[in-house]
Automatic annotation (TrEMBL):
TM segment ranges: none
Gene3D superfamilies xref list: Hotdog Thioesterase (3.10.129.10)
Species: Nocardioides kribbensis
Alphabetized InterPro entries for the sequence: 4-hydroxybenzoyl-CoA_TE (IPR050563), HotDog_dom_sf (IPR029069)
Family matches, as Pfam families: 4HBT_2
Name the UniProt record assigns to this protein: Thioesterase family protein
SUPFAM superfamilies registered for this protein in UniProt: Thioesterase/thiol ester dehydrase-isomerase
Length: 300
């Protein structure tokens, strides 16, 4: 069985291209997941909620989001189906499709998977799923494959890729942890800073280069907490192709890795809506960043 959630778009969800921003989709997935678990949670014989912990006590272990087609603003909601593909002793995996039903068939904008674990926040530790929770999740079970984790390259600490991450108080959830959605926002901010250093202008300010995100994989290691001191984000290019590139990142507190990500970026023609090969003037700094030969432009 799949759960269907209708998600209302907001004008603030859009990016510079007029598309729903890649970060916002993760918020949509969270809304659909919470709605599923709230709607289908059974009560025990004593009247207590048998699966309250699945609604109020989960943390995300891993996200994989594949962006299929841009979604633009409209006043009607977009559909999200979510279901369970795997249930283990202490984790379960959910899958999602963000789509519209059209006369021509299903028009898919995003496909995604999320690995989640029940968490005891008072003790800051994960726990095993209860029998009641496993029974509820089994009702949404469909065979599926979350896919293998993509290969990761060794982290690189270079001035080009450093971004001081300042957590805002509004980023933190009721448990004192930064919400999983905000990690995507942090990665976006750090990525834009790197590209601005490479090109001398942020994406969108430079008409020569329009980029869209094709896929994001994020592994959550240690919760990020609110504090006055910034955390560090280190990003580096691990692949530069003819029309795409891969940026990998780590969010750290000193030597402790809090999260790791891999982002596939594609150059995009806003007129045709298709991928495009950038000019050598745009691509050359990416290649220099890839092989470590990039140097900052002199100022003044």
């Amino acid at each position: 069985m799949r759960h269907l959630y209708e998600c209302q778009l907001r004008w603030a969800d859009l990016d510079l291209l007029g598309h729903v921003n890649n970060v916002v989709y993760v918020d949509y997935l969270q809304e659909a997941r919470v709605d599923m678990l709230r709607t289908h949670r059974p009560a025990r014989e004593d009247g207590a909620d048998a699966t309250a912990g699945l609604v109020e006590g989960l943390v995300v272990v891993r996200h994989r989001v594949t962006y299929v087609e841009p979604l633009t603003f409209r006043f009607t909601p977009v559909c999200i189906e979510c279901w369970v593909t795997e249930v283990r002793a202490a984790t379960f995996t959910m899958a999602y499709e963000v789509f519209d039903e059209t006369p021509e068939g299903r028009r898919v904008y995003v496909r995604a998977t999320t690995v989640l674990t029940p968490f005891v926040f008072s003790e800051e530790r994960p726990r095993r799923l209860t029998a009641a929770e496993r029974e509820v999740l089994a009702g949404f079970r469909e065979e599926g494959d979350a896919g293998e984790r993509p290969a990761r390259t060794p982290a690189r600490e270079e001035d080009l890729g450093h971004f001081p991450l300042q957590v805002r108080f509004s980023d933190v959830d009721v448990y004192g942890h930064v919400n999983n959605v905000k990690y995507f926002e942090y990665l976006q901010e750090s990525r834009i800073a790197v590209l601005a250093r490479l090109w001398g202008a942020a994406p969108g300010e430079d008409s020569r280069a329009s980029l869209v995100v094709a896929q994001i994989d994020v592994d959550y290691r240690v919760p990020i907490l609110f504090r006055p001191e910034p955390y560090d984000v280190w990003s580096w290019f691990s692949h530069v192709g003819r029309s795409s590139s891969v940026v990998e990142s780590e969010i750290r507190d000193g030597d402790t890795v809090l999260a790791r990500a891999r982002v596939v970026l594609v150059f995009f023609d806003t007129a045709t809506g298709r991928s495009v090969q950038p000019s050598e003037e745009v691509r050359a700094p990416l290649l220099a960043a890839l092989d470590g030969s990039w140097t900052a432009r002199p100022t003044g």
